[in-house]
Amino acid sequence: MGWSLEIIEVNNFKNMDQIKKITEKIIAFRNARDWEQFHKPKDLAISLSLEVAEVLEHFQWKSEEEIKDYIKNNKEEIGEELADVFNYLLIIAHDLKIDLGKASKDKIKKNAIKYPIKKAKGKHTKYNKL
Ligand SMILES: [Mg+2]
Asked: What is the pTM of this model?
């Protein structure tokens, strides 16, 4: 499968409305609490980074074997941290007027061209070294 087929598949995504609906919910949540006043882009980016760190905390110091068991037993907690990351992403994109669904699709298309399957399959090499 070449990159052109991958791009056609991305263009056919139909459920991007989900992102809009969840964004509306999280913004309504924020507005009901009058928290927009605290949500400067810098502080939102810091919060996003802190939430990513909370995801990492689940895996810190654990071996690959311990992590497998940990994930089985702590899916809900890990999911909550991923949701925190996701929700901050949605808020930042909303405030900066970035269509995150479109940005994501565009980035997948760019990456499909940067990392052609023929050259990149099974490799972790950066695109400029392929
Ligand atoms: Mg959190």
From this structure: 0.86
